[in-house]
Amino acid sequence: MRQPPRTARGTRTRQALLDSAEQVFAEVGYSDASIVRITERAGVGQGTFYLYFDSKLQIFEELVEDLNRRVRHAMTENATERMTRIEREREGFRGFFRFTAEHPALYRIVREAEFVSPRSLRLHYTRIVEGYIQGLEDAREAGDVGDIDPAVAAWALMGIGEMIGMRWVLWGRDGAAGGSSDPLASGTDVVPEHVFEHMMQFIERALDARPAATPSPVTKEAAL
Q: Do 118 and 198 belong to one domain?
């Protein structure tokens, strides 16, 4: 791996190549992407590419890391220590959906990583879920959520965010509004407020999932 750029100009050029790669990989996929396409989109010569990256695979893997860093920042930037766990979840999901609306390439690139670079895929999810698990463990110990399994809850919440994001942010970008079961028919690139609120109600109930009180047995006299 090459050393980070030493100048502000080099840092900008490197980021321009990553931004270009994000668009190229999203548009044509890893197989059809080329260094020529990436450098042309970035507006630099092909030789410049090799000042910062060794190969197409390396820039792909570093792009996954770059997107991961930025999406984690988007999910936590508005959270504060004084918030309840549910409030933190709310801010985290809003940040995630904003980021995916601005960077829909995240979905395709992460899915391609399963085949192109499984190591990068695992690293992407591991970095997100580790902090998630720790936050839920702390919330459980503080009595802020119910007696949940933090690992199961973290993976389940990540799944909710990913599928809601795909249905209303990614798949609806060019679609016309349609039925609830049609994944390509949300007609929007943002999660509608009513969808977001229903999702949060579901999450709030799940995280506060304490056993319901066992009803008292009905006696024969009471039944009469």
A: yes
Tens of pLDDT, residue by residue over 82-92, are 899 999 999 99
CA distance 53 to 35: 10
Q: DSSP for 11-57, please give it.
A: HHHHHHHHHHHHHHHHHHHHHH--HHHHHHHHTS-HHHHHHH-SSHH
Q: How far is CA 147 from CA 78, 158, 205, in A?
A: 26, 19, 12
Alpha-carbon distance values, 188 to 99, 142, 171 (Å): 15, 38, 9
Query: Can you tell me which residue has the tokens 């795909």?
Result: 166
What predicted TM-score, i.e. pTM, was given to this entire model?
0.83
- Domain span at residue 25? 1-54
Q: Which one is predicted more confidently, 88 or 1? A: 88
Is the pLDDT score of 101 beyond 70? yes
143: left (phi over 0), alpha (psi -120 to 50) or beta: left
Contact by Cβ (8 Å): 110, 162? no
